[in-house]
Design brief:
The protein is of the alpha/beta class. The protein has 2 domains: 197 residues, NAD(P)-binding Rossmann-like Domain (Rossmann fold, 3-Layer(aba) Sandwich); 107 residues, Alpha-Beta Complex (UDP-galactose 4-epimerase, domain 1), CATH 3.90.25.10. It is built from 11 helices and 13 strands. The strands form 4 sheets. A 7-stranded parallel sheet has the order 3-2-1-4-5-6-11, sandwiched between helices. The chain has a two-stranded parallel ribbon with strand order 7-10. Strands 8-13 form a two-stranded parallel sheet. The longest helix is centred in the first third of the chain and has 21 residues. The mean pLDDT is 96. It binds uridine-5'-diphosphate-4-deoxy-4-fluoro-alpha-D-galactose (UFG). The site of uridine-5'-diphosphate-4-deoxy-4-fluoro-alpha-D-galactose (UFG) has 22 residues, from helix 6 and strand 8.
Length: 328
Amino acid sequence: MRVLLVGGAGYIGSHVALRLSERGHIPVIYDNFSTGHRRFVDRFEVIHGEMADYECLRHFLKDIDAVMHFAAKACVGESVSMPREYYATNMTDALTLLNATVDAGIGKFIFSSSCAVYGAPERLPITETTPRCPLSAYGHTKAAFEDALKSYSAAYGLKFVALRYFNAAGADESGMLGELRSTETHLIPLVLKAASGQSAEVSIFGNDYETPDGTCIRDYIHVNDLASAHVNALDLLIHKEESDVFNLGTGIGFSVLEVISAAEEVSSLPVRRLVLPRRPGDSPVLICDGTYAKNRLHWYPQRGLTEILRTAWRWQISNTAVEQAIVC
Ligand code: UFG
């Protein structure tokens, strides 16, 4: 299948492109390169285009069989202070993509949703039927786009899979792909920067949560496990032609302090920490129940926190110079 990956030059999209091509599909990358990287996708067909550009999308959707949508603003904390930008990209522009997809007669759509749609659920682990109750503008935009997919599916016959990622982390084992941002906000790369001496310390956003050590707990899922879930989701749309929603996580939660300790172990270097107040929009605990994805998507995460940190550490060490160039 020829699959258009919108936002495909970014962190998750580029890993998915690689897995798709390994499984015999043809990834076509559509990206505006605002945050994506050409070198992540230089072996594939690449289109430089905006998600908000309906005509451009229609032109390139002509010979496409399925669409995967990765292009989003995705920082929970930032979304609380900049909701306008989040609604513009994650809703308005994303609806342009959805309209172009439907108008082009394409019936398969895979959406990067998020466990941020659940907010702070009372019951853990989180299943797909846990009520959605987002705490941040980011989570609201993801929930709203899921709703749009349901409405479009009912009215226009589009089949979709929404994948609710828990915390994506780690890097491709090849050392060619990983997290690379001009401004980093995610815990694991920031902890590893502190370990490598690129920063003085890592901030801990709150140590007064009702968790065993007072810091937030997340379910970290390796980016290549997420990537294989996309290929399985495409198979599901090809063979079953039914829309569905899946949680993608390992089912194991780690606190911020546990992540820092594990990073110290993997890097064999100490990490200095600074406790700060809570970050607005953060849930105390997010842990996935992946039973449904196992049963229906035949998807089993293969890698745990140590593997995530090992691959991310290798990536971090080999890309320090590149990162510094980007920041400058
Ligand atoms: N954290 C710190 N210090 C930091 C950065 C993060 O203590 O410097 C904490 C956060 O408060 C949170 C945890 O580490 O408790 C993880 O934070 P990240 O920023 O790494 O990830 P988020 O959980 O905020 O968000 C990520 C993705 C979202 C996705 C979400 C699902 O960016 O797209 O995971 O939990 F929705």
